[in-house]
Give the backbone structure.
Amino acid sequence: MFAKEVYVRRRETLLAKMREAGQSGLILFIGNTEAPAQYKDNYYKWRQESCWLYYFGLDEPLMAATLDIDSGAETLYADDVDIDDIIWMGPQPSVRSKADSTGVEHSAPYGAVGNAVALACKSGRAVHFLPPTRYFNTMKLAALLPGAAPSEALIKAVVSMRLIKEDIEIEALDHACDLGIEMHSVARDAIRLGIVEQEIVGKMEGVALAKGWGAAFPTILTQHGETLHNHGHAAIIEPGKLLVVDAGVESNEHYASDFTRTYPTSGKFTTKQREIYQIVYECNELAYSLCKPGITYREVHLATARKMLESLSALGLVHGDLEEMLAAGIAGLFQPHGLGHNMGLDVHDMEDLGENLVGYDPDQTRATQLGLRSLRMARRLCPGHVITDEPGIYFIPALIEKFKKEGLGGNFVNYAKLEGYYDFGGIRLEDDILITPEGARRLGHGRLPISPEDVEAAMAR
Amino acid sequence: MFAKEVYVRRRETLLAKMREAGQSGLILFIGNTEAPAQYKDNYYKWRQESCWLYYFGLDEPLMAATLDIDSGAETLYADDVDIDDIIWMGPQPSVRSKADSTGVEHSAPYGAVGNAVALACKSGRAVHFLPPTRYFNTMKLAALLPGAAPSEALIKAVVSMRLIKEDIEIEALDHACDLGIEMHSVARDAIRLGIVEQEIVGKMEGVALAKGWGAAFPTILTQHGETLHNHGHAAIIEPGKLLVVDAGVESNEHYASDFTRTYPTSGKFTTKQREIYQIVYECNELAYSLCKPGITYREVHLATARKMLESLSALGLVHGDLEEMLAAGIAGLFQPHGLGHNMGLDVHDMEDLGENLVGYDPDQTRATQLGLRSLRMARRLCPGHVITDEPGIYFIPALIEKFKKEGLGGNFVNYAKLEGYYDFGGIRLEDDILITPEGARRLGHGRLPISPEDVEAAMAR
């Protein structure tokens, strides 16, 4: 938890933004409760809701709060513990002292939030709330405000704040990235032919748990990188494959990191692997070199797509006019995802507040083309933006076949040559970038080896 | 997943039991869906619902099934994947082939389960379902069968089956226990003065993730063992403390293990620590020696409570007639929890089916006394029962003060002497036990060091 003043200031800013937007009424925040894994009392690891963390910092289940836009009154709703709780959970600070620790003036039992909301509704006042991220919160909101919709004004105000990271957040992100780099180094050093992928994942996530909250998202570690979100880890590491490792650490302060590296399982790239790797590497570097205030991340995405097609063309996998290929969405056949996303308290920061409200400026419309349509962050870059730079090239047989069958690739795609890549897999290379007033810098101290030479050298050690 | 025949047989047995109990209509099973950690698409690690695993084995989200008690017809409801799913999740077997793999004759889209339930309700047929364990399942059931209550007949039939472990389950439990022993050994070897508790937890859970599904429940690793479910790991390991480590591994087959050991942080017990440790150790051994078919686990709990009071009496912490102390519930002041619980696919097996229906025979009533009332497993032991043996002694200042203030300890408690234990912490020692036709055996190959001598010797290595 940061100092009390941080949360007081953030809530004041939020109320001011709501007033500026002509809003009145109550803002309602519902914190998370424990998430059952098996039966109700066997929980997954506790994780607070991110907006709650941002505005209150209190890292405990079953809390709610109201902020009165008109009067400025703030109330924390939570229950004090009884003797049974003390036996099972130990002595706990009072709700009153918790409210003090985040600078909230009023406190009340958890159940009282229902009365506060009912009273506001009865008086015809608006109750603003954010889209719920968990089933519990959905149920709670449905009970408190049946049929009500989340407040777009509140979403916009929150997004405008969380998008631009404060210095204390950048420090926390640097730390999360340091942990992510440490975790990835453990992964790279653990790669051995003949072991099960899961053994590497266990070592990695052990580091994440020892030093931070844990893995920031389900670790992707797969020799089938062409499956973008492959969460199975039962395969044996085989010679001559490419191993995609996409993983990050959430720090104890709940900030995320998110890195991807792709390793030749045998320690050396084949010529074919290295050709494709080099393209992805150059796209990653190109994106970073373009990042600075003023350019949109959509433009950066398109620049890497152009670079990718140009290089694939040189390999003879596509052919034709570059601009025409871009317009036809041929890049999406090879990289059916966007170049990157916002990162912060969530690894896809604020995703549940609405991808377009988070990642698109009011004057930007989301594309419908495969690849570009999956771009989660398209905005004009500003100092304080934290984004991922993660180009990738994948050979997805089902997608190539679909393009061929439905003519989606026009005359641009060399399907005959692509058949030789059906068992290739995929390559993705990802860093985390902070936009600065001058340009950009990669988060974390140091950088995971990324050039093909450095990767091979690191694996040889 | 076990062989198809296992699931076919289990479902046949379940239907036969329901018919024997005079039931008719449909049995409805709802599998789990992904559980959001931050935003909706950033999930916790996937875990299927345990009864679903038991009867179907299919380890994937968003599935449902109906079993027709009258006709015997079985239907699996799930959706086939489209091209977008293939890009993100890879090629997937068809729902039809998944149904085949568990021997279910009919299959239909996920949404069709709503029609099946509506049709049954319309025809006045009963629809039996189990208590939901997650908020998603609660919402789903509320939508399908508004206001309906879980079926006690179904709960009883399921409990009667899952309570008695089959040979393939015992093998899986032995494996989970082997992994648990390995994880605990890593923990013991990692204890160092001056490190943060979290560093040990990370190493332990890394082993669980590398070799199994992960930790079977949130690891308890604390120098405040007097807090029974202490999940914070931010403390520094300090000299002269007792470190309680209560943790288990869920295997890839989703069977649990659950062990507790208590270590002197400095490697050697103080005299005071060793006196109390010896009592808990003897209670653990006594419970195991008494375990055999025919005795109730309530009797075993009471035998250890008697032993505990006898030994605490010898130390001068309590005094008076042993039977009177037992009757007055004095044991609960020191061990406010039960001796153990059932274990299987869930670490507290089937807890959400109702603790009394799972852990108590029809002729047993649950006690109201502190300690005994928390006994989750009281039944007469049968071959195939898998239970934990986990006596503990804790010095909980808030509880002792409550006893003193409210006179709950009668004249039995030496409060003056107890004041010298306010900073003692707690000790718990737990093994996992299988009831056999002849008696009992501890699960797992080998046993974690437990006698004070063996613990000190293991820590000295």
User: Anything to note?
Assistant: Chain A touches chain B through 63 residues (CB under 8 Å).
